[in-house]
Amino acid sequence: MRGTTRGQQELGDQGKPIVQTTTVFETPRPLPPEIFRHTFTLVPRVAVCLQVRGAKGEVLLARRSLEMETMPGAWHYPGAFLWRGETIAACADRIARKELGVGIVGEPRPFGFFEDLDGDPRGHVIDLVLEVDLEGEPAITAETGELAYCAQIPPDVAFYHDRILRAAGLS
After folding, report:
1. Model confidence at 55, in pLDDT bands (50, 70, 90)?
2. What whole-number distance in Å separates Cα of residue 145 and Cα of residue 165?
3. 123 in the Ramachandran plot: left (φ > 0), alpha (ψ -120 to 50) or beta?
4. Strand, coil or helix: what is 64?
5. Best CA proximity match to 120, nearest among 77, 83, 86
6. What is the CA radius of gyration of the chain?
7. In the chain, where are the structural domains located?
């Protein structure tokens, strides 16, 4: 994957460079794991979560695969972190395909944004929750151990997604 480098050298108070270059990648991509984890010590991370409603108003949740590094086996909204250069709509479609095995129909609709400073053990996360319609029936993928439409909040919910589920009308 090719990137372009642009930037300038700006000197700080002690004459040391504080900005040397910025690399802009042509295609959005995830960070290497060690850099991804380090970013939580620097800035809040933006995640996109999908809210899919069942026929009776239930909310589709995914159980995290037991191989996941963070909160394995817990229920959560299907979601992922936004990549640099990726639009929110493209991120939502990536999540649907990777975690639910189907794409999105139409445009994602904002449901709300939520943040928690310590609900994610990795650090400060801001969740953009989008209501979406799927192209077909969701299916278990390598990312999800189980899927279920929930009318009530399960006892083992990851992160702080129980707050989001309450805002969606579940108890």
Report:
1. very high
2. 20
3. left
4. strand
5. 77
6. 18
7. 30-167
